[in-house]
Amino acid sequence: MTRGFGFKLIAVDAGARRGEIATPRGVIRTPAFMPVGTAASVKALYPGQVREAGADIILANTYHLMLRPGAERIARLGGLHAFMRWPGPILTDSGGFQIMSLAGLRKVTEEGVAFQSHVDGARHMLTPERAIEIQCLLGSDIQMQLDECIAFPASPDEARRAMELSLRWAERCRRAFAEKGSPGQALFGIVQGGVHPELRRRSAEALAAMELPGYAVGGLAVGEGQAAMLGTLERTLTFLPAGKPRYLMGVGTPADLIEAVARGIDMFDCVMPTRSGRHGQAFTWSGRVNLRNARHAEDPRPLDERSACPAAREYSRAYLHHLVKAGEHLGAMLLSWANVWFYQELMAAMRAAVAEGRFAGFSAEHRERLAGAETNRE
Amino acid sequence: MTRGFGFKLIAVDAGARRGEIATPRGVIRTPAFMPVGTAASVKALYPGQVREAGADIILANTYHLMLRPGAERIARLGGLHAFMRWPGPILTDSGGFQIMSLAGLRKVTEEGVAFQSHVDGARHMLTPERAIEIQCLLGSDIQMQLDECIAFPASPDEARRAMELSLRWAERCRRAFAEKGSPGQALFGIVQGGVHPELRRRSAEALAAMELPGYAVGGLAVGEGQAAMLGTLERTLTFLPAGKPRYLMGVGTPADLIEAVARGIDMFDCVMPTRSGRHGQAFTWSGRVNLRNARHAEDPRPLDERSACPAAREYSRAYLHHLVKAGEHLGAMLLSWANVWFYQELMAAMRAAVAEGRFAGFSAEHRERLAGAETNRE
Description:
Two copies of one chain form a homodimer.
Chain A: E1 6-13, E2 16-23, E3 26-30, E4 32-35, H1 47-52, E5 58-60, H2 62-67, H3 71-76, H4 80-84, E6 90-92, H5 96-102, E7 104-108, E8 113-116, E9 123-126, H6 128-138, E10 142-144, H7 156-180, E11 186-191, H8 197-209, E12 214-217, H9 226-237, E13 246-248, H10 254-262, E14 267-270, H11 272-278, E15 281-284, E16 287-290, H12 310-313, H13 317-326, H14 329-355, H15 359-371
Parallel strand pairs in A: 4-14, 5-6, 6-10, 10-11, 11-12, 12-13, 13-14
Antiparallel strand pairs in A: 1-2, 2-3, 7-8, 8-9, 15-16
């Protein structure tokens, strides 16, 4: 199942891991941040810009693509890589999380989840087998099991039920993938169990026993707060094999990334850099900057002199402020570009820090600064 | 007034003119099409893409910029070229046309035009003197006189009144520009007079007597239809000096451009390439293509193999269709890019045809094809 796919741990420092995931479409340097290309586009960026920013891999959403343009259509057009002109590795989620957050009239049964499309109201059924079939039609390099991600807060009983169902779905996905997956593609399991340590342990151990090529921690960053997220993460990771990549789904802020890397996470995805960019928010090496703020209206300085991104270096804050206020496309384009680039610079800096045995110092220096919102100092 | 600014006629062929406008910021090859950067951005394009597409000059709208971010602010930030990172020549209109089409509560008097901002409802007064002052604060290379552009249809009396007022404003602009303009900057007059030949003649002759460095034909493409537009244009141009550049404002479709070049027009501007791009419409060497159309849903061919634009060559119509249907920013970005590029290719092809004495053949070959909407042949 993992022919052509492999994970190599290069260095460990202060809990943080520097590694490499080999895939037939290229190496993924870890810790890695995957920009999100929900509907086969990392919003407001050309694919070449995503690569130049330093991304080795992107994420695409099965839920969105199965509804529009449809997995069979993408397969007929040569697969997702050709369709969206991204030649590197792609990870697809299973669709479960988006069904919970976007679709109408959901009904979860042992068989799978029935739901109504948010695009046209049509009824669909997603089973573990169909989730794998769709991901194979898309041709993604890393595929995710179908899981049930419940809302926070949930009772222990509800969290246990969903976790156990997700385990049974993991096994069905494993079998479907063994049949339909291609050499070099990998299926990851997803640990569930809410903020309940015992449920997380049982989920992680059962998935580890399936000997999948990688594991995700799901169901976090859904409202439980950073402390609960990190506590749950820490306990969960002790039950996952060290030799497999570990992916924290849907996370997060720059400070979240530093904290999670410090606990041994290798992969992340989040819409934050692109979504924030479309709303006038920038991430910089000095913290967050809200370009809507009137204090930028006559500021001739660039967004971030420490960034190598042309969007952060070559345009004035005054111009970015104007573009955001005027609702110009270019504002979203430049800030999304700057943010995706900043996230990649942050990951590259963490990889270098781990490799050079100075991650603790890096973390201490940056985690508070990057957590801060815009200040007058800046 | 025209030091450093000059027009050179290089070739005339079948009524069409090949020329060059020299400005301190670079040469404008004519016939030229100016992409419109209304609010200091050619919508959905990076400035470098506009240049690479072949544009020598862009247009920016005085009305939008005076309201947001404000002309004085742009001046404090070093002028419009630095603000929007466009080092080449910029033409600014006077604001008159946008006040007529966008602002609320307009009142035209001898003094100027009072209006309410469409951004925040604030009251403003634009006089000929202030229009020049604003354009000098922006630092544009080619500035336009304030004129009154009336709605179509208008009675001959109304057209005459507005034309005569525009002439008096031209004289006031000329004086203001003589005082405030910088060496190398140029002020263009605007011929008005609706579709009335006699009014157009009087307007053109009076402006020609002012010996301005260039002349625009205004008040066309406002609903009178292509035949009336071209008829009026033809008659108007006979009264303008051959040695000055001639600019047809707000025009138009590819077929309009060919027809107007055939009548001796040297410069154009229009929002059509960018606005159409944001609405899923593409201009190609085979005619217009509506990417919303379901027939493109599984078409693996590029938009236009005859274009050199990456957006037209490297992405499938199926992908463009998907992006447009999904409302992805990238759809607007790619189609705006392809359209701006196509318009520049069309101008370059016309310039070459005139220079090589084959414009009549070029015009016959392309004007009908480019006028056509999408057909099944395509």
